[in-house]
Amino acid sequence: MSDLPTTLSPERLAELAAQGRAQAGRSPFVNPDTVAQLKELLRERGETWAASILMRDLSRRSLLFPHLPWLKDGEMETLVLANKAEWEQLVSAAGGDAR
Length: 99
Prior knowledge:
Elements: H1 10-25, H2 32-45, H3 47-54, H4 75-93
């Protein structure tokens, strides 16, 4: 597990948060694929990483799943988008193609 903070700029994090809220707002239902991605991300990247992406404390727990942090609308999507953005940033810095 990697609990390293994000390498994304605060400006990029704000853009991703807006995109995450927009994605979440498109449907009244939670996307199960996004939930699965989030669980994997939290397991692999850790809550310290997630807190650095969301720029807030994640000590409050989910009532339904106490082993997971409580997330606001759009934050699940934001974390998935941030992971993808960091991967693209890493590939780009290595001179590769992020496909």
